[in-house]
Structures are given as structure tokens and as C-alpha cells.
Amino acid sequence: MPLSIELKPREKIFINGAVLANGEGRTHFFLLNDAAILRERDVMTEAGADTPCKRVYFSIQSMYMDPDNQADYLSLFVQFTQAVRQAATSAEALLDAMESQVAAGKLYQALKTARKLIDYEEELLNHVR
């Protein structure tokens, strides 16, 4: 079944490493095959990966968008998840889920789980403050 995508004016989308920018009006299109897709709002920059859980997200995003260098990013993912696991044992269920998803090649699903991990990290940090 094709994936239906609607872009707002001037919204960007990343498809298999290519950046597409929408013009002035809304655009609606269908993607007919599998591709690595991220909307601009879901893309994290390296500079934006400024917390342990954001670094986990960034490593998964890098694997997803740059499969040619996936082994390098997988190494970072393992390193970052181990650090989070040591610092926040209460995040173990999310980390286990992400590790399973990454091992199964379900990187987009792992990104969604990593977003939950970032939200959890924010909850923990807000509680400490």
C-alpha cells in the first residue's frame, strides 16, 4: 500500500538522503516503494544531540539515513545505549525495545521508541529540577 505524504508550504522531507523542499503551496504525493523518510521536524542535528538520549536518537537516525555507514553508527548506538542504561536503569524497557528493533532492522520503529526515551529523559530531568 502506498504511503501518502502531505507537505505544508516550504516544508522539507528527507528521502533516502535526498532533501526535497516544498514550494509555496501544500503538496500531496504517494510513495510507492520502501524508502528511508524523515520529515524536517523529525530530523535531529548532531549539535542538537546534546543529551544522552538524544545521542541515542541521533545514532539511530544516522543508521536509518546513511545505510552505507551503518556499522559505524551501530557502534555509537551501542555505546550510547550502554551509557543511558547505566545512568537510568528505569529506562531499561525502552532501551531493550530499541535494541531489538535495531537488531531486526526496524530503524524507523526504533526512532519512534527513541522519541519516547527522549520524553522520558525530559521527565526525569524536570523531576530533578
Architecture overview:
The chain is of the alpha+beta class. The protein folds into 2 domains: 3-42, no CATH class; 52-128. It is built from 4 helices and 5 strands, in the order βββββαααα. The chain has helices spanning 52-65, 70-87, 92-103, 107-128; strands at 3-7, 12-15, 18-21, 27-31, 37-39. It has a 3-stranded antiparallel sheet with strand order 3-2-5, with no helix packed on it. Helix 3 (92-103) runs antiparallel to helix 4. It is globular. The termini are far apart. The model has no long low-confidence stretch (mean pLDDT 94).
Keywords:
single chain; 129 residues; alpha+beta; three-stranded antiparallel β-sheet; two-stranded antiparallel ribbon; 5 strands; 51% helix
Q: What does the largest sheet look like?
A: 3 strands, antiparallel
Beta-strand share of residues: 15-25%
Distance between the amino and carboxyl termini: 46 Å
Low-confidence stretches: none
Measured as a percent range, the helix fraction is: 40-55%
Shape: globular
User: Averaged pLDDT, please?
Assistant: 94
Q: Within the largest sheet, what's the order of strands? A: 3-2-5
Number of domains: 2
Q: What's the order of the H and E elements?
A: EEEEEHHHH
Helix/strand-derived category reads alpha+beta
- Rg, nearest Å: 16 Å
Number of strands: 5
Helical segment count:
4
